[in-house]
C-alpha cells in the first residue's frame, strides 16, 4: 500500500522504474521500426518513457481517488448508522433532520 511507503523508499524505486520504462520503450520502438531505430531517435524513446510515466501516474491517481471515495462513503454510512442508533432522525439524504 502506498501510504506505508516512506519517501526514501519511493525515491529508491525511481531508478529501477525509469530503467524499466526505458528498456520497454527501446524494445517497443525497435520492434515497430527496426533494430537500432530507438538509438537513432532518442527523442522518440524519451517521449514514450514520458507517456508511460504519465499513464502510470494517472492510473495511480484514479485508483487512489476510488479508494478514497469508498472510504468516505463507508465513513458516512457509519456516521449515519451511529446517528440512527442514537435516535436522531435521519432523512433519506443521510443528514440529521
Topology:
Blueprint: H1 7-33, H2 37-40, H3 42-85
Distance between the termini: 38 Å
Mean pLDDT: 87
Q: What is the number of strand segments?
A: 0
- Which regions are unreliable across 5 or more consecutive residues at pLDDT < 50? none
Strand content: under 5%
Kindly state the percentage of residues in helix.
over 70%
Instruction: Give the biggest sheet.
Output: none
How many structural domains can be distinguished in the coordinates? 1
What does the radius of gyration come to? 23 Å
The outline comes out as elongated
Structural category: mainly alpha
Number of helices: 3
Describe this structure in words.
This protein has 97 residues and is mainly α. It has one domain (15-85). 77% of the residues lie in helices and 0% in strands. It contains three helices and no strands. The protein has helices at 7-33, 37-40, 42-85. Helix 1 crosses helix 3 (42-85). The longest helix has 44 residues, at 42-85.
How would you concisely characterize the structure shown here?
By secondary structure, the chain is mainly α. The chain has three helices and no strands. The mean pLDDT is 87.
List keywords for this structure.
97 residues; mainly alpha; 3 helices
